[in-house]
Amino acid sequence: MAAVDAPVATVAEADAPRPRRAWVRKLSLWVPAGLTAFVFLACFLGPVVLPIPAPVGGNVLESSLPSFSPGHLLGTDPNGNDILSRILHGGRASLFVAVTVNVIGLAIGGLLGALSAYIGGKVDTVIMRLLDVLIAFPSLVLTLAVAQSLGPSLTNTIFALAFFSIPAVARVARAATLSLRELPFMTAAELAGTPWWRMLLRHIVPNIAPQLITFSMLGMGTVIVIEGALSFLGLGIPAPNPSWGNMISEGQASLSATPDLVIWPSLALFITVLAFNLLGEALRTQWSGR
Amino acid sequence: MSGEPTARQTEEVLDLARPEAASRPSADGPLLEVRDLRVRFTRGGRVVNAVNGLSYTLGAGEMLAIIGESGSGKSVSTRALMGLLPPSAQVTGSARFEGTELIGMPEKQMRAWRGAKIAMVFQDPARSLNPTMRIGAQIVEAIRTHSDMSKKDAADRAVELLKLVRLPAAERRFYEYPHQLSGGMRQRVVIAIALASEPRLLIADEATTALDVTTQAQIMELLVELQQRLGTAVIMISHDLGLAASYAQKVVVMYAGRAVEYATAEKLFANVRMPYTRALLGAIPLLDRKTHELLPVIPGQPPDPAALPKGCAFRPRCDVATDRCLEPPALEEHEPGHWWACWHPAGGDGDTAGARTGGEADEVTVGSARQVKDGA
Amino acid sequence: MTVAVERRTRNVTAALLASPSLRLVGKRLLMAIPITLGVSILTFWVLNLVPGSAAQQLLGVEATEEQVRALEREMGLDRPAWIRYLDWLGGAVTGDLGKSFVSDQQVTSLLGERLVVTFELVILAMVGSLVLAIPVALLAAYRPNRLFDRLSMVVSVSGLSVANYVLALVLVLIFAVQLGWFPAIGYVPFTEDPVENLRTMALPAAAIAFPLFCFYTRFLRGDLVDQLLGQDYIITAQAKGVGPWRVLIRHAFRNSSFGLITVVGLNLSTLIGATVIIEQIFAIPGLGQLMVQAINTRDMLVVQACVIVFAVVTVVANLVTDLLYAVLDPRIRYGSS
User: Fold this and answer.
1) Is residue B15 part of a domain?
2) Parallel, antiparallel, or unpaired for β B233-238 and B63-67?
3) Which domain holds residue B315?
4) Contacts with B134 from chain C: Cβ below 8 Å
5) Is the confidence metric ipTM above 0.90 for this complex?
6) pLDDT class for A290, splitting at 50, 70, 90?
7) Do B84 and C231 touch (CB under 8 A)?
8) Is this model's pTM higher than 0.90 or not?
9) Do the chains contact at C235 and B190, CB–CB below 8 Å?
10) Residue B306 maps to a domain
């Protein structure tokens, strides 16, 4: 009834955004989902299924071939390594890092934030202060510091990125749990004598999960970008193993001569991050109503 | 008490004292003449008929009450008059204000009229005022939109307006923000804004619904006072028949986008005809009801404007409906000054609903009689 | 005339002092101190996860055990961590952040010369992003869902998915290599040549500003349209006969500006952190580049100082944002009476 009895005028003659038709909404979810799936499949299954040479140990005689050369769809780098292969393998590494970091962030950060909010009191304050300290750092700076300390490797990169992923998720989880606490059904469950672990698992987690997953999905893009930045600076995934970040960094040296070395990994990065962002957006609209 | 203006002071500044306008019928015909107003919304393939043929007349300085439930189209109809509907709305019919057709007026012209000729006061004063703008600034904006006054003159005028609506400590309030005022005070400010450019017609869209009963009475009294002093006509939109009974000269009862009963207040409450109106009256809780008695409510829900029932829209909920009602009754002046649209109106004088309704009619008549005495 | 002005100023100051906003700000200021302390502790801990290696790195792989041990003793790296921290803290409070292992220069003076450069970059990026975002969002919200709006939204969403270092290289490719309008790397101080300075800063600032621009545009446009569609004071303004641009700017945007301030504040750490990689790409001698260099040369004290400065600046910037918000938003400034 309210929609009819309370019409609203827009500023100019343009129409207000109509409630999206069902198929538009479906499209905005399934297209990025499909794109994401494609990226994963390409990076993890591609090298297995397609006849692509190894990402390292290339033939120097075949170095710096341009794109669309025979046998090398995207050309080769100065070391003779096939670019397409490096992109797919680099994608493997980057995606693996991103997914792992997000899972860790969700698990540890989510639990930490939810527990902190649920327990409340001094514990909550202390944890909040700790989170504040962690969040005070610009993400790249802290991650760099950790990565530098430990040295470049895959596991160290994951560890370093977790440093900023966990507090970010914890904060969201805490806020979500806090607002959840106010709801009557929580009080009812507590009064019924539900033990704390059951409260957490059966009541809190299922209700904050959509928000956390959406946040996580939107954060995937950031994680990939920052991992790329780490690798770009030589502190992430170590050469000669490919990562989109270190490929871009290597390509920078010959940017004017062979821009393709930068363009292909950049494109791969862009498409992947875009897919994750759109997917996260679609999930958010889906799960929060309009 | 420094905020209380003397009548003379206000009149001097505003130069609007036209007490005679309230009782003088307009020489060139009614102020507002609405004929067969229809509003249709088309959204994503769905057609919603919000207003299905509404007609009434309003004279200068009169107060008309439009009564109806949510979804009856009462708000939509008045917004159509001011051109405040989204482009998905199609408005047909006629609404002549001082002779000029409002429906289809180009936006630029309409904007010049909004606030200047016709003004609107909305339901929730907490949300109607911009929370980040000082009250004085919001009134000054209303003034300067339609005049070339200097900022200083407009500010002075704004303070006078605040005094006119009886806002205490007007000069101080000028610099304050909406959240620093109470609900009743905010509504006064909203009325002051509406009156800034001296409109001939003020539309009060559920203006008192969000207020407590005491404040409600105060605001209504204020509206009546302003109506009489400034000669402004008022359209009062409400779901509260009691308010209509106490203050309005004319009443239009709307149901499902149509006027189903239309008469002067005294005629309406003396002889309620339309079963819907009767049911509305009957549903008003009264002090003299027996305790622990079920309140009579109208069974069912108001119809979905996108799927109106065949024939008379009230038929599914009416207790005197017959097959005849499958044919929509037209709004006709069955008695002089009293229009209704029903095949089975409550008959005669001293109507059939029983002693209680008769008692209410007496009360209500007293109210309208008071109104008539005060001169309108 | 002056009496009235004076009285008004006094009233405003009194309102401010009694206001909840000042108490809020005071509380945040107090909290900032332990946070800063925590930041320094955390930094120290993180950077010293593997302490001995600093000396090892300096001497190189061929160094013998004794040489490493001797250097450690000399640098004081053999003492337990908490003693080293307190030592460092003591120095820091008095303004002595130690000396660079590499250049033997006082860390504080190193920071000093770099800070100005990074500051300029940050300001340029922030101002640039806002100066573009606000008009674009206003124009988009003026005619929602028309061409300009849809176009700007597509650009914003895509722009948010571009990594700033990728964008930096693309900008270099187009504007430096192909068009030659701006230099690819290098820096000229403002005092030396303002025009050249701006030319060298243009691409780096653009690389940082663009993702922010996308974010702000999206946010602002969404907030404006939300207001236009849902808020009663918008219809009230229209019912007054106020024109569409005025409604948009004087009413909708005024309310949006508070949300915008918050969002800008939230993104400050991203903005500041971005300088690290952007300065590296464009060879801008700022704090970020210093940090990366120090990392590569294992110049521990410099890295430490840089990290802490970055964090402290973020904390301070957030504080300033809160202060701004508290002072400007009348709902907070005046509370309810």
Assistant:
1) no
2) parallel
3) 272-330+352-374
4) 330
5) no
6) very low
7) no
8) no
9) no
10) yes
